[in-house]
Amino acid sequence: MSAPVDLVFAAPRRGKPPRHLADLSSDERREALVALGEPAYRARQLSTHYFGRYLDDTAEMTDLPQASRDRIGDGLFPPLLTPVRTLTADGGATVKTVWRLFDGALVESVLMRYPGRVTMCVSSQAGCGMACPFCATGQAGLTRNLSAAEIVGQVVAGSRLLASGEVAGGPGRISNVVFMGMGEPLANYRTVISAVRRLTDPVPDGLGMSQRGVTVSTVGLVPRIRQLTEEGLSVTLALSLHAPDDELRDELVPVNTRWKVAEVLDAAWAYAEQTKRRVSIEYALIRDINDQAWRADLLGEKLAGHLVHVNLIPLNPTPGSKWTASRPEDEREFVRRLEAHGVPVTVRDTRGQEIDGACGQLAAKEA
Ligand code: SF4
């Protein structure tokens, strides 16, 4: 298969989403308020409403003068995410939402409550240009990059839902954000970094989450992994490896034809070295494709001795696809062999299977 390398850094082709408060740093918010004819101190007031109370309707911001509400609403709180469909699973502890963006593009987010933590999985692009053949999103190609506010807005919407007590388990807060929805986060690098800062800056500048609670995934854009290493953040890097050998990885993750397994692992180890954070290796187990015992051994050899953790993901097959989940005995043997190499491994809890767990699947259906 030929690599979609020309798409790796492709600029979005559609129009830009309107500017939103969450696109701006705190200095930029003050400047924007002044430009709207408002006092600069309103930036803090609005940020507290948005990041502290999850409000985005200025009609509910009762401390704003009536005359300012429409102006500020139009200038800084344009509607960016409209829910098209919401599905729940796992007894109401998993909530998946398909959002329509201002230009009609569809993305999705998933909120997952576990004992002791709540994880929000967000999309960073509408569609994806990486063309992984086992992934529904990859089949449709890239529509455009999301803006920082479109990314942060998914988390704010999840926070609002959770705070309202509508998610099984009662009111709570999001503790983890994983960039594992639609898209290749590092192909939308600057925006994703801005979004991470909005998520982790203290309230009211941002949502006040811990950087350690944020995971940024990548299929292996080596220059961007190296850039992230220098960013001074302590987010977890998740590398979607899916194969330990170039021959198979060239097929499963076409960007591998540009950056090979050895090169991408080198970049990952440099990230671990710099941040002291364990790199998460994502490996979708696909029956008779990448789940052979010899591949488990090869993976174990390549990872042994590094600051690493392997997440094995039982593949949730997309409709009409030839790719399917491994047999239970092959999965067990894969785990056993990795452990024999001293590599820590877990099999991911496949949340939301009954509502189309594979990334991008639900939005693909809506489209
Ligand atoms: S698996 Fe991830 S990187 Fe690959 S095409 Fe799908 S969304 Fe893109």
UniProtKB/TrEMBL annotation:
Recorded family membership: Belongs to the radical SAM superfamily. RlmN family.
Coiled-coil ranges per UniProt: none
Ranges for domain Radical SAM core: 114-354
GO cellular component terms given for this protein: cytoplasm
Alphabetic keyword roster: 4Fe-4S, Cytoplasm, Disulfide bond, Iron, Iron-sulfur, Metal-binding, Methyltransferase, rRNA processing, S-adenosyl-L-methionine, Transferase, tRNA processing
Comment field (misc): Reaction proceeds by a ping-pong mechanism involving intermediate methylation of a conserved cysteine residue.
Protein name: Probable dual-specificity RNA methyltransferase RlmN
